[in-house]
Design goal:
Length: 404
C-alpha cells in the first residue's frame, strides 16, 4: 500500500461524500492518453501529483536527474494559491471551488521540488498555503478543514522541514503540529502500546494503526520521506510527554508488529484476505531507521528484497520510490535490491532521466521498460462505491498511500 494516503483518503471521501450527488464509473477509457511527462501509465486522477513527487524525490535521492519535462509537469500542477490538487488534467484552467485540494499531494510536491532545487517560488507558495489551512489543534487533515490525522500532519511536517521551516514553531492558536501528534499517540500498555492512531473514532477513542504509526514516528522526529539512520534510543515505552518520546514509543510498537508477522506488516483492510502490506512495511523501515532502530529495519528491508518485486511491478512509480527510500534509509543498494535495479525500474515508468556521472550508454539503458503502474486507487474507489459514498476525488497512498 502507498502508506501515507490510504486512511487519509477514506476519511476525506467520508468528509466530502455527502456533498457529491452521484458516483460516476471511475474506470478510465482504454484509449485515454495521459501526459507523457507523467510517471506511470494508469489514470492519475487520484494520485498524479503524489506519484510524480515520489518518483522525482526518489530519483534525486539516488543521484539521478529527472527529465526536465517531468519536473515542469509537477510545477504546472500548482494552483494560484500555492496548493496542489491530486491531479489537474488541464493546468491552464484556473483552480476553483470544485478543485479538490490535497494537503498530502502539496506536501509531497514540496519535498520533491525542494530536493531538486531551483523552485523556491513554487515551494514558498505551497508552504504558505499549508500554513493557511492548519487546524486549530495544530494539525492537518487530508483536505482543508478536515479533521487532523496523523498521516497528513506528519507529511506536512516533512514538507515544512524540507523547506527550512521549524515545524514545532508553526502554530495555529498556540498549537503546533507536534501538539496534534501527541494527542493521537496511544498510551503505553495494552494493544496500542505507544502506537499512533490515524484519527479518534466517533467516540473519541484511539486505535493503534501501523500505517499511521510509521508516519507519526517520522512526523514526531521532524523528518520527511528521505532519512538517514538516526541515533539509537534505548528508551522503553513511557508517557509521550515529548515528540521524541512519542517517536520512540511508536518505533517500539512497529518493531513488535514487524517481528510478530515475520519482519513485515500485514494488511489491516477490513474484509480483505490476510496478506503482507509491502508499502506500509517499507514506510516502517524508514521510520525505524530514522529513530535509530536499525536492527529491525535491516531485517525488514531484507524481507522486502526477497518478496516485494511483484508488488512493486504491479503498483508502479510510488512503490518503486518507497522501496528506494527504505533502501536508502538502511544503506542498502537500490540498484541491487534482491537482484533488482529499483532505479532503472522506476526510470522505466516515465521519461528517461539523466543520471549524474553515468555514461551515455548507461543512461540509454534506463529507457528500457520494466515496470507498470497500478497504484491501488481503484480498490478504494470500489469500497466507497459499495458503501454508497459519492467520490469526487481520492488520494499515500498512500495510496487505491495503497496496498504509502
Amino acid at each position: 500500500m502507498n502508506v501515507r494516503r490510504s486512511a487519509a483518503v477514506l476519511a476525506a471521501v467520508a468528509v466530502i461524500g455527502a456533498a457529491t450527488p452521484a458516483a460516476a464509473d471511475p474506470s478510465p477509457s482504454p484509449s485515454q492518453a495521459f501526459p507523457s511527462a507523467l510517471y506511470g501509465d494508469k489514470d492519475p486522477k487520484y494520485d498524479g501529483v503524489w506519484r510524480q513527487s515520489l518518483a522525482l524525490l526518489a530519483q534525486d535521492t539516488v543521484g539521478v536527474k529527472p527529465a526536465d519535462k517531468s519536473v515542469q509537469w509537477l510545477t504546472r500542477q500548482q494552483c494560484a494559491d500555492g496548493s496542489f490538487a491530486s491531479y489537474r488534467p488541464d493546468p491552464a484552467a484556473a483552480c476553483d471551488a470544485k478543485t479538490m485540494l490535497d494537503t498530502n499531494a502539496t506536501s509531497a510536491a514540496v519535498q520533491a521540488l525542494t530536493a531538486l532545487g531551483g523552485h523556491d517560488g513554487v515551494t514558498r507558495k505551497a508552504v504558505g498555503w499549508l500554513k493557511s489551512v492548519q487546524n486549530e489543534d495544530g494539525g492537518w487533515g487530508y483536505v482543508p478543514g478536515g479533521a487532523s490525522d496523523t498521516n497528513s500532519t506528519s507529511i506536512v511536517i516533512g514538507a515544512l522541514a524540507a523547506a527550512g521551516e521549524k515545524p514545532d514553531q508553526v502554530e495555529k492558536d498556540g498549537k503546533s503540529p507536534h501538539d496534534a501528534l501527541l494527542k493521537l499517540a496511544l498510551p503505553c500498555g495494552g494493544d496500542g502500546d505507544g502506537a499512533f492512531a490515524f484519527q479518534p473514532d466517533k467516540k473519541g477513542e484511539l486505535a493503534a494503526n501501523a500505517d499511521a504509526t510509521a508516519a507519526g514516528v517520522l512526523g514526531a522526529l521532524g523528518k520527511g520521506m528521505v532519512v538517514e539512520p538516526g541515533k539509537k534510543s534505548d528508551a522503553t515505552c513511557e508517557k509521550a510527554a515529548t515528540p521524541r518520546q512519542a517517536a520512540a514509543n511508536g518505533a517500539g510498537y512497529l518493531t513488535a508488529a514487524l517481528a510478530k508477522d515475520g519482519n513485515h506488516l500485514m494488511s489491516a483492510l477490513a474484509g480483505a484476505e490476510p496478506q503482507p502490506d509491502f508499502g506500509n512495511t517499507a514506510d516502517a523501515v524508514v521510520a525505524l531507521a530514522a529513530q535509530g532502530d536499525t536492527a529491525q529495519a535491516e531485517k525488514s528491508v531484507r524481507w522486502l528484497e526477497k518478496n516485494s518485486a511483484s508488488w512493486a511491478a504491479q503498483s508502479g512509480p510510488a512503490a518503486f520510490a518507497q522501496l528506494i527510500f527504505a533502501a536508502h534509509a538502511t544503506g542498502t543498494n537500490p540498484r541491487d535490491f534482491g537482484g533488482a535495479d529499483l532505479v532503472k525500474q522506476l526510470g522505466a515508468t516515465g521519461p528517461a532521466p539523466q543520471a549524474a556521472g553515468k555514461t551515455t550508454s548507461e543512461a540509454a539503458d534506463e529507457k528500457e521498460d520494466s515496470g507498470s503502474d497500478f497504484f491501488g486507487v481503484w480498490w478504494y474507489v470500489g469500497v466507497c462505491l459499495v458503501a454508497g459514498i459519492g467520490i469526487g476525488f481520492l488520494f499515500t497512498g498512500r495510496k487505491k498511500q495503497q496496498q504509502l
